[in-house]
Amino acid sequence: MCLLFLYINPHLKKGEYKIILVNNRDELYSRPTKPAHLWDSKIYGGMDVEEGKEGGTWLGVSETGKISCLLNIFQPSGQFKKDGASRGFLVVKYLQAEQSGAEYLEHIIKSNLVYNPFNLLTMDPGELSYDVTYYNSENNFYQKIQPGVHGFGNSFINKPFRKVKKGEMKFQEIIKTYGKTESEEQLINELITMMQNSEKNFPDEQLAEQGKGQSEDFVKSLSSIFVTFPGVGYGTRTTSVILVDHLNRVMFKERTMKEPINLEAPEWELMSHHSRYEQFILDTLL
Questions:
Q1: 33-47 burial string, b = 16+ CB within 10 Å, else e?
Q2: Which of 64, 74, 154, 239 has CA 20 to 30 A from 24's CA?
Q3: Tens digits of per-residue pLDDT, 80-100?
Q4: What's a BP term from Gene Ontology annotated to this protein (predicted)?
Q5: What is the pTM of this model?
């Protein structure tokens, strides 16, 4: 389970961001993971190191400024395919590819690999903004995401959970108040604080429908932006912020639980990465 809020700037100006992204990763506390770091393949992001799935990720940025995020679809009890292909490599392969997001997603559509359901976002850097494409594996189609504010969760894009709709409104407020480069530190702090909100957004008909057969307590725990369900050792482990400004400077900040995770007194560590990808920039913005 993951949660993503995204702002794509429709009219980039000096002192603004092309794209603003904040993401929560919900996962089993026991699943081994490396915190965000620069990979040999010139990708920056966290890394799944669970046996058999080593080298996958849920969120990453490439040296060329490409960004991708994977969000699993919440399923009713008993529908998970144990032999499904690993979804984490979908992000990695896109970030490594020279293809655009749309070209890459066409390749996925034509492949015969069987996955458990997911949403995948590909983000290609452009001169003044980002070209963002959304793919849903169940419907096996992709669509361009228009500039503006968007929220994505563990359901179809047109059937969002309540927490996604509520979080989207808060995200928009933060962008309006702190969405300039001069307020970068405040922006990051506000986004991370927003993603720590443990208020339940329940009942939620869509969440309940997708969670048929799951325990009510577990389903209810998933209705908050920040998830905690100690009973099965599951919850929000990582919050990440990615900012790309008008000069193509990339800022990636991660707040993640330090392993081994102590649920009674979790220790959080911060990772930061700054880079700049090579891309033509209009003189009017300099």
A1: bbbbeebeeebbbbb
A2: 64
A3: 888 889 999 999 999 999 999
A4: Golgi organization
A5: 0.95
